[in-house]
Amino acid sequence: MKRVLPDADTVKATIDTVLQEASASGQRPTVTVIERHLGIPHATFHRHYAGLIDTHFRPRIPAARAEADTGRPRADEGKETPLHRLRKENTDLRRTLALYEEAIRQLTLENHALRQGATVVPLPTRSQTLPP
Predict the structure, then answer these.
(1) Of the candidates 129, 122, 69, the residue with the CA atom closest to the CA atom of residue 102
(2) How far is CA 118 from CA 2, 37, 87, in A?
């Protein structure tokens, strides 16, 4: 059984409705919302109405720059870049590794001394960590 698809005028009316709702709520309109209003799966919608999206929907979407200039902070402002974050994480991991190396060295010496029956003398810890 084939599904009856809406005609072009119905799709245009739905696009207009979605654009009005988006401008009223301050959100960006999407094709997904249009598909939900019509109850049409994504692939079917694009197969039959791709021309309407290009001619009737996309030209009427507010530019992304207009949204960026509203005075609201951008989502990535104040956040570290991924490269900076990874470098910082790498430095922290190197410091942690140096601490573990020192702990293993001390435990190895204590273990060796205990196996030989010697008295264990606690070693002083280093005041600074080794450079990464």
Answers:
(1) 129
(2) 88, 81, 44
The reply to whether the predicted model has a pTM over 0.70 is no
What is the CB neighbour count within 10 angstroms for residue 109?
Answer: 13
C-alpha closest to that of 63 among 24, 29, 31: 29
DSSP tag of 39: T
Residue 108 has pLDDT above 80, yes or no: yes
**What is the rounded CA–CA span in Å between residue 16 and residue 5?**
18
Q: What is the pLDDT of residue 28?
A: 87
Cβ contact 45:31 at 8 Å: yes
Q: Which two tokens stand for residue 79?
A: 């956040």
Phi and psi, residue 57, nearest 5°? -100, -60
In angstroms, the CA 56 to CA 49 distance is: 10
CA-CA distance, 8 to 16, in Å (whole number)?
A: 12
Pick the closest to residue 15 from 41, 27, 33, 40 (CA basis).
33
